[in-house]
Amino acid sequence: MGNIGGGEVLVILMLGLLVLGPARLAVVARRVGSMTREVRRVAGAFQEEVRELVEDPSIEALARERGRRITEPAPEDPERPAGPDGA
User: Fold this and answer.
1) 26 band by pLDDT with thresholds 50, 70 and 90
2) What is the sign of the dihedral through the CA atoms of 26, 31, 32 and 34?
3) Are 19 and 29 a contacting pair, CB within 8 Å?
4) Residue 40 maps to a domain
5) Pick from 1, 5, 7: which is nearest to 36 by CA?
6) Is the predicted pLDDT of residue 7 greater than 80, yes or no?
7) CA-CA distance, 12 to 1, in Å (whole number)?
8) Is residue 53 situated within a structural domain?
9) Looking at residue 48, what is its pLDDT?
10) Which of 18, 20, 44, 65 makes an SS bond possible with 25, Cβ 3.0 to 4.6 Å?
11) Exposure of 30 by Cβ count < 10 A (0-12 exposed, 13-18 middle, 19+ buried)?
């Protein structure tokens, strides 16, 4: 349950029981459970999509090609950029 301890959960449940009553607390608990399940499902699907994109062979080939260009030595006599006075 993340960073919530057992005592904290107990306090939250007792407050919920006092504020909502037993019938509404059960309904709210079911809704919270279903929303939590849905959020986890969506997060898992998102992680899977990202994993598929990262592991895509065409992207890996492109990254290798770009990395090769970056690590190649510079030309012997690169052109000098023009200075502020145009020289």
Assistant:
1) confident
2) positive
3) no
4) yes
5) 1
6) yes
7) 13
8) yes
9) 93
10) 20
11) exposed
Q: Which of 22, 23, 26, 24 is nearest to 34 (CA)?
A: 26
The boundaries of the domain holding residue 20 are: 16-71
Q: Which two tokens stand for residue 34?
A: 């279903």
Q: How far is CA 1 from CA 4, 5, 6, 8, in A?
A: 6, 8, 9, 11
Q: How far is CA 11 from CA 8, 24, 26, in A?
A: 5, 17, 16
pLDDT in tens, 32-42: 899 999 999 99
**Does some domain include residue 61?**
yes
Q: How far apart are CA 85 and CA 64, in angstroms?
A: 39
Containing 50, the helix (H) or strand (E) segment is helix 6-54
Distance CA 49, CA 84 (A): 48
How many domains is the chain partitioned into structurally?
1
Q: Which token pair is 43?
A: 């997060």
Residue 55 is assigned to a structural domain of this protein: yes
